[in-house]
Specification:
Structural class: mainly beta
Strand content: 25-35%
Helix content: under 10%
Radius of gyration: 64 Å
Number of domains: 5
Number of helices: 3
Strand order of the largest sheet: 1-2-3
Largest sheet: 3 strands, antiparallel
Length: about 375
C-alpha cells in the first residue's frame, strides 16, 4: 500500500510541473493511512508546497519591445536629417548651418556619444533663394508684380500695368498737342476710346520752325510756338534788289532779276540783297579779278592800307581786271563817286560812302545799304 501511494504522488508532481496549472487538490481514501514514517521517507525533496504550483511570472525575454530600455537616442523629427549621425565624445558643443538657405544656426550638444539638437534652428530666412511668383496688380488687375526671394526675403518689384484707366469709366479728358483740347472718352479694356479731339492748338509749345514767307512765298522766316500757336521770330528773309524812288532807296522784295546768275549792282543788286547772284563778288581776292566795269570790283575787301577807289583797268591782251588805287584827292571829298570806270566803295572809302546816309539818284547808290527783312 505504501508503494502505491508514493507512486501516485510522483505522478501528480510531474503533472503539476508540466502545465503550471492551478493548485492540485485531491482526496485521500479513508482507508488509506499515512504513517509518519511513510511521510518521512518521501522527504523534503518529494513534498511540494502548494505555493510552488502557482504560475511563475513572465521573464524579461517575453516582454514587448515597447517596455525595453532604449538602445539609442532617437533623432528629433523636426531637425535636419543626419543630426545625430556624427559621433562625438564627452560634453562637446557645436553650431552647424541649417535653415532654408543654410544661413541659420543650429546648436548641438554631445549626449551619449551622439550629437543632439539643442532647441530649434535659428533661421533669418523666410523663403528659398531664387524662387519667384507673380501676383496681379494695376487698375484692372491686368498688370503683374513679380515677388522674388532674394537673400531669404520676399521683395516686390514694380507693378507693370498696361492700363491707363479703369474699365467702364467715362468723362471728358484732355487731349491734343498740348493737352489743352477736350474730348468725350470711355475706358475700354484699360484704354481711353475717344471722340474727335477739339484742340485749339496748331503746334507743340516751344517748337521752332523755318517756313516760307514774303512776296510770292520766296522768302524764309523763323517762327516759335507760343501757347500752341506759331509766332514770327523776326522778319521774312527774302532776296531782291534796291530801287531809288524819289531820291529814297526802297527794297524790292522778290525782284525777278535776283536769281538769274548775274550780279547787277547797276540794277540795285548786292551780296546782301541777292546773295545767290553776288556772293562770289566778295572776299579778299578782288585784286586782278576779271571785270567788265568798276562795279564788278567794289564788293571785294579793300586790299591797301590807305583808302582809295577801284578801277577796271585794261591789261595786256585787252583784258580788264580790278585794280585798287590810292586816291587821296577823290576819297574824302564828301561825295561817293560811283562810275563804271572808277568807283569808290563803302569798304575802300567809308568816309564818302557811308552805308546808311547816302542819298540816291540811281539804283546803284543804294547797294551798300543793309538789306532789310520783309514784314510777314
Amino acid at each position: 500500500m505504501r508503494t502505491w501511494f508514493l507512486l501516485f504522488l510522483l505522478v501528480a508532481f510531474v503533472a503539476c510541473e508540466g502545465n503550471l496549472g492551478p493548485s492540485l487538490n485531491f482526496d485521500v481514501p479513508a482507508n488509506m493511512d499515512l504513517a509518519k514514517d511513510d511521510m518521512d521517507a518521501v522527504g523534503d525533496r518529494d513534498i511540494l508546497d502548494e505555493g510552488d504550483l502557482t504560475p511563475r511570472p513572465d521573464s524579461d525575454v517575453d516582454r514587448p519591445d515597447s517596455t525595453k530600455p532604449d538602445a539609442d537616442i532617437a533623432p528629433d523629427p523636426d531637425t535636419d536629417p543626419g543630426d545625430v549621425t556624427i559621433l562625438c565624445k564627452g560634453d562637446e558643443h557645436r553650431e552647424i548651418a541649417c535653415g532654408l538657405n543654410a544661413r541659420g544656426i543650429q546648436k548641438q550638444r554631445c549626449i551619449d556619444d551622439h550629437w543632439v539638437n539643442q532647441g530649434d534652428c535659428i533661421d533669418p530666412d523666410i523663403c528659398q533663394d531664387g524662387l519667384s511668383n507673380y501676383t496681379p496688380c494695376g487698375l484692372n488687375y491686368r498688370g503683374m508684380i513679380e515677388i522674388a526671394c532674394i537673400d531669404g526675403q520676399f521683395e516686390e518689384g514694380p507693378c507693370v500695368d498696361p492700363d491707363v484707366c479703369v474699365d467702364g469709366d467715362d468723362g471728358i479728358i484732355s487731349c491734343g498737342l498740348n493737352n489743352r483740347g477736350r474730348t468725350n472718352s470711355v475706358c475700354v479694356e484699360g484704354q481711353w476710346v475717344s471722340d474727335i479731339c477739339d484742340d485749339p492748338d496748331e503746334c507743340v509749345d516751344d517748337d521752332r520752325r523755318t517756313t516760307s514767307c514774303g512776296t510770292g512765298d520766296k522768302g524764309e522766316g523763323d517762327q516759335n510756338c507760343v501757347a500752341g500757336h506759331w509766332v514770327n521770330d523776326g522778319g521774312c528773309r527774302i532776296s531782291g534788289s534796291w530801287r531809288c524812288s524819289n531820291r529814297k532807296y526802297q527794297p524790292t522784295f522778290g525782284a525777278y532779276t535776283c536769281g538769274n546768275g548775274a550780279c547787277e549792282p547797276v540794277a540795285g543788286e548786292s551780296p546782301q540783297s541777292c546773295p545767290v547772284d553776288c556772293a562770289l563778288k566778295t572776299g579778299p581776292n578782288g585784286e586782278g579779278t576779271p571785270c567788265t566795269n568798276a562795279f564788278d570790283c567794289f564788293f571785294y575787301d579793300w586790299p591797301l592800307e590807305e583808302q582809295g577807289l577801284w578801277e577796271c583797268s585794261e591789261e595786256e591782251g585787252n583784258s580788264k581786271v580790278c585794280k585798287a588805287k590810292v586816291s587821296v584827292r577823290s576819297c574824302g571829298n564828301g561825295t561817293c563817286e560811283l562810275h563804271p570806270l572808277r568807283t569808290e566803295s563803302a569798304i575802300g572809302c567809308p568816309r564818302d560812302c557811308p552805308p546808311k546816309t547816302m542819298a540816291c539818284g540811281y539804283d546803284v547808290n543804294c547797294v551798300f545799304h543793309p538789306w532789310p527783312t520783309e514784314d510777314w
